[in-house]
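Incident review: delayed structure delivery

Summary: a single-chain prediction request sat in the queue longer than the usual turnaround. Root cause was a stuck worker, restarted by the on-call engineer. No data loss occurred. The affected request and its eventual output are reproduced below so the record is complete for anyone auditing the incident later.

Affected input:
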Amino acid sequence: MFDISQPPSPLLNAFSSPNPGRKEDSAYQAIQAITEEVLRSSSWLADLRREMAKAIIGQDHLVERLLVGLLTGGHILLEGLPGLAKTLAVKTLARAVKTDFRRIQFTPDMLPADIIGTEIYNPQLTIFEVKQGPIFSSLILADEINRAPAKVQSALLEAMQERQVTLGDKAYPLPDLFLVLATQNPLEQEGTYPLPEAQIDRFMLKVIVGYPSMADERKMLEAIDHTDATPLIESVATAADILRSREAMHQIYMDGRIKDYIVALVCATRDPRSFGLDVQDYIETGASPRATINLKVVSRCLAYLAGRGYVTPDDVKSAALDVMRHRLRVSYEAEAEGVSSEDIIRKILDTVPVP
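Output delivered after worker restart:
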């Protein structure tokens, strides 16, 4: 936990020694009040983390990013090999939150109606009745999302962006907590379909799930020896808790220079030469404006999870890879030389001046 009286960011040094009557002192007091509200509204997160730890050993980055999605309402794409607890983590999160949850297993023979629903003719009433699909839930696990063809993927676009579904001539709103958590295997190509760029851009984060550490894998073996069944996960969070946290998170202070830094990072993916970067030939298209918006949202959420009422440059840096890796398309030259979008983003982070 950070001490608000000693902010780690030089941007807030003026607030570290309040002096009555100064403009900086009133700003300091405002940030301190925000921090207190952050701590009050986030008390339920400790219980949620504890419940998830019953089933998930290690994978701290994955758990943190799932909490970011829950708090911001931003959709998340989880990419990793089978057996790395992607599906288990999402199901555990859903069990710990008091809300409705649906798992959709994507397959090559799926139809859009299998997700969003359809209109069914009622011969007795001589009318068409709407049968809503599983998309009408608060938490959606889209398992192996890249196994469905493009027309099925397109059925998710309106839901993910507009948070509504159109059936016939009427639009139906989705729940306030509507959140898509999708998984995909990066290696297996048979029977899979690349996600459309328009859909990829609608995922706030693309999280790469890696292998656990040796210590965590050792703990898994011990856990198996002491449990005969799936751990009992209690529902400890409510929709009211999440919505209250979202309100508090929106109040978190973000300095203008932090905002300039966010814009500079994204613009460096489009015109790297302007920032002294010689990676232009490796970039086919830069990050979209959604990257700018999501960097701000995720940075604020990371400050919230840390119990702070203000955003630091480190929050932005921590969010950058997951926010931009799927929005920056590399060229054929980069692929030939083994340069990934992550390599380019790290180069940008090392080059663009930090406020």
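Verification: Residues 10-41+252-351 form a domain with the Helicase, Ruva Protein; domain 3 fold (CATH 1.10.8.80).
Action items: add queue-age alerting; document worker restart procedure.
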